[in-house]
Automatic annotation (TrEMBL):
Taxon lineage: Bacteria, Bacillati, Actinomycetota, Actinomycetes, Kitasatosporales
PROSITE patterns xrefs: HTH_MERR_2
UniProtKB keywords: DNA-binding
One function term, GO molecular function aspect: DNA-binding transcription factor activity
InterPro entries: DNA-bd_dom_put_sf, MerR-type_HTH_dom, MerR_fam
Naturally occurring in which organism (per UniProt): Streptomyces griseoviridis
Pfam families noted in UniProt: MerR_1
Signal peptide extent: none
Record's protein name: MerR family transcriptional regulator
HTH merR-type domain residues: 1-68
TM stretches of this protein: none
Amino acid sequence: MRIGELARRTGVTTRALRYYEEQELLAPERSGSGQRHYAEDAVDRIHLIRQLYAAGLSSKVIAALTPCVIDGRATPELLKRLAEERDHLDRHIADLTHTRDRLDSVIAGASSNLRTGDPCRRDTAT
């Protein structure tokens, strides 16, 4: 199928499909005139790529993981790598939650100590 049909069937723009190709996430065949032609399994591959992007994985990580999908099925290596990525995201979420909690603490403490004429307040008259 051609790029326009793949875009229509997957809901992805042709620009995104070209980007996936640049990132080596997708490898179309080329006709003699240079037109892209995609195999039927490209639809499933695009869906997987979009799921992995939505999960927060980078194109570099996705490029390393997608060869671990054979006939649309995850290999043990893929499952291991996905678990590692999930653990990385869990650590990042914990760090962000800790940062948010510290900000909440500062906000709560600072709001009880507001002074008039504070040079950091935006609503003070000059």
